[in-house]
């Protein structure tokens, strides 16, 4: 049985959206007394109607491309299925593949892989596995460099990188001066299995630069992952840097030196290298996150600011410093807000 990532390999955004537009048009003209339902993997039936079907932006603040999503009546903020290639797919099935060669860390290239990246980021991490003190990170842009971790026919994690020379979203006129890993996530069920080190090794192998960056600030657990890497590859002592901003000469600090300093102060135990996947890199840069409130009642978005302090929760995530109010609104607004334009929006 093929899954969306296999089927959508040769499909374009336009074809996917045209199919969803046709489906939504049929749904709007269907008999409400003969409503269909979708069976989730746990055998629970979710009714399909215009009241719980709508579009969500695939790339966050970039509203150019959307996905048609199904929401459970009891949770109108989290999609339980996506309409892809002419049928509904449970979000858990969107992460699966029938291609046995799809294993390990593979670069995101196709539309199907972009959809998988979206589900991992916005649904699995943000809606299901994010701890309450964590800050969600933005949807990846359609051209962002990212790799998905495939294991036993399923996508279990990802990481993304801002390549050297790419524009920095915090400083629109400045470009990154070295490759910087800015987001990383492994599902909770697959942590403690060495995937943190695996991702760091892949990052190093993928970018043949003299210096590589990890987004500031690193958590205590991420330092352990870096220490484990440096013990395995001592010749790379000058390779890894903790980076602020675009990574200029005065915006970076050598990770090996910081680890030595922390070890001297007893903050990192040489024996405490267990469960290195349970890492948290908060890239807050002293940010204030704009939280969208009351988006349904008011025609204009109201934003309040709340300062967030990084904690060392057991998670595997990096957060970018900007959270756009529009992006947040699209992620949380009830589906019926989209219904008047759900057909013409494509």
From TrEMBL:
<dbReference type="InterPro" id="IPR000182">
    <property type="entry name" value="GNAT_dom"/>
</dbReference>
<dbReference type="InterPro" id="IPR029625">
    <property type="entry name" value="FAM169"/>
</dbReference>
<protein>
    <submittedName>
        <fullName>Family with sequence similarity 169 member Aa</fullName>
    </submittedName>
</protein>
<feature type="domain" description="N-acetyltransferase">
    <location>
        <begin position="106"/>
        <end position="246"/>
    </location>
</feature>
<dbReference type="InterPro" id="IPR016181">
    <property type="entry name" value="Acyl_CoA_acyltransferase"/>
</dbReference>
<dbReference type="GO" id="GO:0016747">
    <property type="term" value="F:acyltransferase activity, transferring groups other than amino-acyl groups"/>
</dbReference>
């Amino acid at each position: 049985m093929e899954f969306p990532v296999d089927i959508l390999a040769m499909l374009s955004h336009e074809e996917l959206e045209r199919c969803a537009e046709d489906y939504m048009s049929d749904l709007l003209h269907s008999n409400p007394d003969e409503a269909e339902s979708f069976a989730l993997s746990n055998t629970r039936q979710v009714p399909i109607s215009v009241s719980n079907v709508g579009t969500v932006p695939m790339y966050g603040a970039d509203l150019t491309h959307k996905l048609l999503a199904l929401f459970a009546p009891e949770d109108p903020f989290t999609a339980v299925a996506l309409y892809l290639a002419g049928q509904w797919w449970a979000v858990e099935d969107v992460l699966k593949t029938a291609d046995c060669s799809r294993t390990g860390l593979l670069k995101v290239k196709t539309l199907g892989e972009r959809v998988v990246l979206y589900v991992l980021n916005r649904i699995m991490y943000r809606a299901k596995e994010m701890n309450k003190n964590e800050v969600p990170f933005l949807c990846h842009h359609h051209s962002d460099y990212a790799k998905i971790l495939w294991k036993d026919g399923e996508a279990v994690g990802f990481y993304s990188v801002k390549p050297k020379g790419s524009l920095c979203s915090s400083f629109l006129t400045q470009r990154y001066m070295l490759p910087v890993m800015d987001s990383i996530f492994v599902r909770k069920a697959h942590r403690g299995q060495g995937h943190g080190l695996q991702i760091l090794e892949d990052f190093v192998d993928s970018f043949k630069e003299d210096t590589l960056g990890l987004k500031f600030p690193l958590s205590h657990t991420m330092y352990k992952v870096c220490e484990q890497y440096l013990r395995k590859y001592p010749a790379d002592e000058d390779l890894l840097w903790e980076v602020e901003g675009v990574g200029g000469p005065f915006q970076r600090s050598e990770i090996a030196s910081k680890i030595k300093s922390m070890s001297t102060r007893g903050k990192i135990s040489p024996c405490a290298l267990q469960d290195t996947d349970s890492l948290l890199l908060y890239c807050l840069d002293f940010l204030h996150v704009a939280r969208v409130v009351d988006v349904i009642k008011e025609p204009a978005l109201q934003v309040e600011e709340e300062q967030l302090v990084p904690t060392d929760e057991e998670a595997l995530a990096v957060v970018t410093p900007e959270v756009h109010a529009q992006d947040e609104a699209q992620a949380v607004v009830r589906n019926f807000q989209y219904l008047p334009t759900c057909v013409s929006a494509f």
